[in-house]
From TrEMBL:
Belongs to the class-II aminoacyl-tRNA synthetase family. Alax-L subfamily. InterPro entries: Ala-tRNA-synth_IIc_core, Ala-tRNA-synth_IIc_N, Alanyl-tRNA_Editing_Enzymes, Thr/Ala-tRNA-synth_IIc_edit, Transl_B-barrel_sf, tRNA_SAD. Transmembrane segments: none annotated. It is found in: Cytoplasm. GO terms for biological process: alanyl-tRNA aminoacylation. One of its GO terms (cellular component) is cytoplasm. Keywords: Metal-binding, Zinc. Residues 51-245 form the Alanyl-transfer RNA synthetases family profile domain. Its cofactor is Zn(2+). This is Alanyl-tRNA editing protein Aarsd1. GO terms for molecular function: alanine-tRNA ligase activity; ATP binding; metal ion binding; nucleic acid binding; Ser-tRNA(Ala) deacylase activity.
């Protein structure tokens, strides 16, 4: 059985179709390599096989719209479809983890909640584009649909929009939703499309052996598009314009408008309400009073940080001379000191206090972080001293503590990742440094 030509697949003829039985596997091939076709861009992994069907209800990524996910069902098993993509020749491939031999009969099912969300965002973009062109004369350059909870965005080309213009655009778009325009799909040959003149919007006039698909919003817009769409704009329920990131480039001015539509808008509203209630409980303030409360907390936190910095500096000035006196007595070759509640600022202050108290330059290894944390803590280290051999000591510190960092000459520093800072690793680091010093001093 030959596959259905691209752009007139079942998912494009009827975007509300949730499943399609009686399909046949035309070809099944293994994926090759980490960057091969079949990579799920949302999950970040790669499927084992790519399956081409005689037709499909699962949309392949394209036109700014992510692919559908879903399942292929046989009498024996249900195979998860991670991703669907369109090859350069127009063929559509389903990324799966199970080999399905050619001729296998399957029923394809789409993840409807994901499809419905994608339809709303894509049709919402078409509607915003159409209304913006009619009311303010701005064309759309490009658009992108992000996965929830990220908003989608479209680029309106022109000088920076005022907030009043954006608010009016939002009202006009939602008025159009109330008008409940029909959304229809037609297909043309390239010759038929050429005869329509400027009636249909497209970036480049197409020349294709495949059918050319045009999505129309009655009385508002005719746009060449391969994506899935609602049947009537009332399915969008509402559109909210969230933010305008204005990009003033040499060749163009771009209003990057973020938006949400349909079920995603309802979900966002619910999530915002939940977070607002949680913030009210945490802050002991509601509504506009929350901003005042946060400002108060920020001021108090900044004051506390300054006080803590002063206390730690005083502590460093007390501890530093004692460490110098102890090292001058023991002559171990290096001062090692760990403080569980310390900070990078404390290490800096202590390093300066040691340098001020010492009669000559000393090697100093300071660490901070909770070594008693269950499963190991995280922290940081600072290593200073004479340049000779200090890079070798730094390597010991990094290896024993699993740290990452850098430096050169008389100063090295790094971060100790979560799980690497323990009493044992600290002990090994201190012992390793002193052992390495024997080689350096020879």
């Amino acid at each position: 059985m030959a596959p259905t030509p691209p752009y007139i697949l079942a998912c494009q003829n009827d975007s509300h179709l949730r499943e399609l039985a009686g399909l046949e596997v035309v070809e099944c091939k293994p994926t090759e390599g980490e960057n091969a076709a079949g990579k799920d861009k949302d999950a970040g992994d790669t499927a084992s096989f790519l399956v081409q069907l005689s037709d499909t209800v699962l949309f392949a990524e394209g036109g700014g719209q992510p692919s559908d996910t879903g399942a292929l069902e046989t009498p024996e098993q249900t195979v998860r479809v991670r991703h669907v993509e369109r090859a350069e020749d127009g063929s559509v491939w389903h990324a799966v983890d199970v080999e399905l031999p050619p001729g296998t009969k399957v029923t394809a099912r789409v993840d409807w909640d994901r499809r419905r969300d994608h339809m709303a965002q894509h049709s919402g973009q078409h509607l915003i584009t159409a209304v913006a062109l009619r009311t303010i004369g701005y064309d759309t350059g490009s658009w992108s649909m992000g996965p929830y909870p990220q908003p989608s965005y479209l680029d309106l080309l022109g000088p920076k929009l005022t907030q009043e213009q954006i608010d009016q655009l939002e009202r006009d778009v939602n008025d159009a939703i109330l008008d409940d325009h029909a959304v229809t799909v037609r297909t043309y040959t390239s010759e038929e499309l050429a005869n329509l003149g400027d009636e249909v919007r497209f970036k480049e006039r197409p020349s294709s052996e495949f059918p050319i698909r045009v999505v129309s919003i009655a009385a508002l817009d005719d746009n060449m598009c391969c994506g899935t769409h609602v049947k009537r704009v009332s399915e969008l329920q509402a559109v909210k314009l969230l933010k305008n990131d204005f990009l003033n480039k040499k060749q163009s001015q771009i209003n990057r408008l973020q938006f949400v539509a349909g079920p995603r808008l309802l979900r966002c509203t619910g999530d915002l309400s939940t977070r607002s209630l949680a913030l009210t409980a945490a802050l002991g303030a509601a509504g506009d009073d929350q901003l005042d409360r946060v400002s108060q907390l920020q001021s108090a936190s900044k004051k506390l940080q300054n006080e803590m910095k002063s206390v730690l500096t005083d502590l460093a000035n007390l501890v530093g001379p004692n460490l110098v006196a102890q090292e001058e007595k023991e002559q171990s070759g290096i001062i090692v000191y760990h403080r569980r509640e310390g900070s990078p600022q404390f290490m800096e202050a202590l390093s300066k206090a040691i340098a001020a108290a010492a009669s000559s330059e000393m090697r100093v290894f300071l660490t901070i972080g909770d070594e008693t944390a269950r499963g190991g803590g995280s922290g940081a280290f600072l290593l200073t001293g004479p340049a000779e051999g200090l890079d070798a000591l730094n390597k010991v510190a990094i290896d024993t503590l699993g740290a990452k960092g850098g430096g050169k000459g008389k100063r090295f520093q790094g971060k100790i990742p979560e799980g690497s800072l323990t009493a044992k690793s600290l002990k090994e680091a201190h012992a390793g440094l002193r052992e390495a010093l024997k080689t350096i001093s020879q």
